[in-house]
Each structure stands twice: as structure tokens, then as C-alpha cells.
Design goal:
Distance between the termini: 54 Å
CATH topology of the largest domain: BirA Bifunctional Protein, domain 2
CATH architecture of the largest domain: 2-Layer Sandwich
Helix content: 40-55%
Number of domains: 2
Radius of gyration: 28 Å
CATH class of the largest domain: Alpha Beta
Strand content: 15-25%
Oligomer: single chain
CATH superfamily of the largest domain: Bira Bifunctional Protein, Domain 2
Length: 426
């Protein structure tokens, strides 16, 4: 969401920012509607002032015994009342129309974000580690999991349809171990506060983090108006909605391990096998709330926290800066971490870390009071995966597979697996 005052003052910069997103000039329509709204409010205020004046005149006329003038004034007051009621309805309609117009526009990218139409314009920043070498043709994770008898897509399809999986035994424990390892790292070393949030939220929470109104078709909704969270970003970021924080209490850093639910409506034909793109998946999410001055440094810090998970698991990865055409709707800048999957012979996304500026804060009315000041400012929000748990398991299976079909467990996860060092077919 944008500050309409800023758009009035600098429409050229506003349009130039959205042009990087591939959008044409938006300020003419916005400012035209805004002017209509302001003109209407001015006229409505005049009518209200006239009503107040007439009300006083009625009393004066009656005090003077001028009943005819009093009746005329009373009739005028009745007409003004109708005009004002209709005018207030129109004001609400214009307010809603302007909010809808602004709510449908994506965030403006930072100046250093590469401009491009799609993922082909993304820029690789660096790589970490090396690819593992195998003396055999590495298998994909679903081949490994099915051969172990611990990953069952067929039964999941009978239960729920496509894009679901049943994990059993050591693989079910491995997913739990990965999540526990991540949470302990983020809370114990990086200062995040662990939260167990609701998995069902209302419209206003989804609007606050910009899943609504534009992306409603990508979400699961219950028949009584709840939304299943597509990411814990939604409840974690909304923890500060409609609040005024003190600068001394910032930054606030939250983390949560939750199931996430996405329709994947636009993913027909993509990753139909395996656990890469599912309707239900688990993720450890990171959310930061901070001041405008600290948000860019917080973005780099969040990226480093997510990277540390992969470093300790000994996984090869690269960091990408997303271009304007591939970046999320609410982001000003996004780093993707892509982990190497030898079974697929490619890098795949395992985390996205985004800085959103005050875009979400305006939608949530989340503010803070700078030290020594009476006025308030909007906070800046950030979110990132720390990491996607299912995809991390995919990476472990493919990178630590052995020729006999077993999987070595990374040392960092063994304490969470009861000391187990490998997973083999029973």
C-alpha cells in the first residue's frame, strides 16, 4: 500500500518505480480518483457547515417569532440532511475505490534491484561449497524415499489427491529433526523468538501481508471465512498489526515452524512428482520488524541466518538477487537461496528473503514511536524462509544418498535423530 500524499507530490517517481515491474503509468487514474474524492469531501464539508449554520438560524427565527422563515429553514435542513447522508455514502464509495486501486499495485523495487521480465534476468551473487561427487548416477529424492519404503505418494493420492505425500518412520522423524535443528539455531544463536501461531486467519490478516486481494485464487479458504495460511509470514507479521511500538523494542524477530497450504493454481504440469511443489508443506519462517534505517542491514542479516542452516548441513547452494519481474508482490528486494539437487542436476529454491519497507505496515497500521519523539512512523517488515523443511529434506536425501540406497544423516541432524547416522531400507 502506498502513501497517497507521496504520489501527489512525486507521481513521476511513483510511475517510474512501477514501470520496473512492467506496469504502465498508474498515477493519472489514482490522482484523478483522489481529486474527485477530495472535491467531494470539500463539497460535503460545505454542506455540513451550512447545516450547522441553518440549525442556528432556525433557533434565531423561532426566538424572533418568524415562523414562516423557521419553516423554510427546517425544510432546507431536511434537504441538507439527505444530501449529507448521500454524500457520506459517496465518500465511502470513493474511499473504497481508491483503496482498491492502491491495494492492487505491487511494491516499488529498490534502486539496486535488477530490472527484467522474468527469472532469466535474475543475478547470481555468489556460491557456497562444492557439488558432491558420486560414483553412480544420483537418484531423485522420490526415487530414494520410495525405495526406502518411507515416502508414499500413492496412499497420499488416495487420501487427498495429487501433490500430497505420506512420510513414514525415519523420514517422518527426519522432517521433525530438520525443523527442530532450524528452530534451535534461529532461537538459540540468532535471537528469534519462537511462536506457535494460528494456522487459520481472517481476511484482514491476509490483506495485511498482501496475499489479498490479488492472490485469493492461490489460497485455500474454509466455508466459514477462514484462510489456511500459505506461510507463517501471515500470522507472524500481523502480530504487530494496529499497534504502536517503541523504537527501543525494535527489532522484533519471530520464527515459527508450521504447515503451509497453497493451491499451486498456476503450477499445472510443474514438479508433478515428488515433494518440491505440494499443496501442504512445512516451513520454518523468519519475520523481522524494524526501523526504516535498519531494514536493509536486517535483510542481509536474515539472509545470513538462512544460509547458516545450509552451511551446517554441508549443502552446496547459491544466492540470487531476483529481478523486478520475478520478485514477490510485496517485496522491495528479494534474495533467493537455491540449493544444489544432484538427482535433478540443478539448483532449486529453498528460501526467499525479502525486505518489504513500509508496504505491509501501511496495510496493517503498524507503527513505532522514534526515541524522543511524539509522532509515529510506519515500521519496516521483512520475511524469509529459514528454511523450507520439505525441500531441505529433499536436499539431504539427494546430496547424502549412497549407492546401496541408504542415506547418510548430516552430523548436525544426528542429535535430533537419536544418534542415528544413516537411513536404510528396513
Amino acid at each position: 500500500m502506498f502513501d497517497i500524499k507521496w504520489i501527489r507530490e512525486d507521481p513521476a517517481t511513483f510511475d517510474a518505480g512501477l514501470a520496473k515491474r512492467g506496469l504502465g503509468p498508474q498515477s493519472p487514474a489514482i490522482l484523478g480518483l483522489d481529486q474527485e474524492r477530495r472535491d467531494h469531501i470539500a463539497a460535503l464539508q460545505e454542506a455540513q457547515n451550512r447545516r450547522n449554520s441553518v440549525s442556528k438560524d432556525v433557533g434565531a427565527a423561532k426566538a424572533a417569532g418568524d415562523e414562516e422563515r423557521a419553516r423554510g429553514l427546517i425544510e432546507e435542513m431536511a434537504q441538507l440532511k439527505t444530501r449529507i447522508q448521500e454524500g457520506e455514502d459517496t465518500e465511502r464509495r470513493l474511499d473504497a475505490a481508491l483503496e482498491t486501486l492502491l491495494a492492487g499495485l505491487p511494491n516499488i523495487p529498490l534502486d539496486d534491484v535488477p530490472v527484467g521480465p522474468d527469472e532469466t534476468a535474475n543475478v547470481e551473487r555468489y556460491r557456497h561449497g562444492t557439488r558432491p561427487e558420486f560414483g553412480f548416477a544420483p537418484r531423485q529424492h522420490f526415487e530414494i524415499g520410495e525405495a526406502l519404503g518411507l515416502m508414499d505418494f500413492e496412499t497420499a493420492a488416495r487420501l487427498s489427491g495429487a501433490r500430497f505425500v505420506v512420510l513414514k518412520g525415519a523420514l517422518a522423524r527426519l522432517e521433525r529433526a530438520i525443523a527442530a535443528f532450524m528452530l534451535d539455531l534461529h532461537t538459540g544463536e540468532f535471537g528469534y523468538t519462537e511462536v506457535v501461531p494460528p494456522l487459520l486467519v481472517r481476511d484482514h490478516a491476509m490483506f495485511g501481508t498482501a496475499q489479498l486481494p490479488k492472490f485469493g485464487d492461490d489460497q485455500f479458504r474454509t466455508t466459514d471465512g477462514f484462510w489456511l495460511i500459505p506461510t507463517a509470514e501471515v500470522p507472524l507479521t500481523n502480530l504487530v498489526r494496529e499497534s504502536i511500538l517503541e523504537e527501543a523494542d525494535l527489532p522484533k524477530r519471530f520464527t515459527a515452524y508450521t504447515p503451509c497450504f497453497r493451491l499451486e493454481a498456476g503450477a499445472a504440469g510443474k514438479d508433478t512428482r515428488g515433494m518440491i511443489r505440494q499443496h501442504q508443506f512445512s516451513k520454518v519462517e523468519l519475520v523481522s520488524v524494524t526501523t526504516p534505517e535498519a531494514s536493509l542491514a536486517e535483510h542481509e542479516r536474515m539472509l545470513a541466518c538462512a544460509e547458516e542452516v545450509l552451511k551446517r548441513l554441508g549443502l552446496h547452494y547459491r544466492v540470487i538477487t531476483l529481478c523486478t519481474g520475478d520478485m514477490g508482490f510485496g517485496a522491495r528486494k528479494t534474495y533467493d537461496i537455491e540449493v544444489w539437487l544432484p538427482g535433478q542436476d540443478t539448483f532449486r529454491e529453498i528460501s526467499s528473503c525479502s525486505v518489504c519497507g513500509d508496504f505491509q505496515a501501511r496495510r496493517m497500521q503498524a507503527r513505532y514511536r522514534p526515541d524522543g519523539e511524539k509522532s509515529t512512523r510506519f515500521v519496516h517488515t521483512l520475511n524469509g524462509s529459514g528454511l523450507a523443511v520439505g525441500r531441505t529434506m529433499v536436499a539431504v536425501l539427494e546430496n547424502y544418498q549412497r549407492e546401496d540406497g541408504s542415506v547418510q544423516i548430516p552430523e548436525a541432524l544426528r542429535p535430533f535423530m537419536g544418534g542415528m547416522d544413516r537411513i536404510a531400507a528396513g
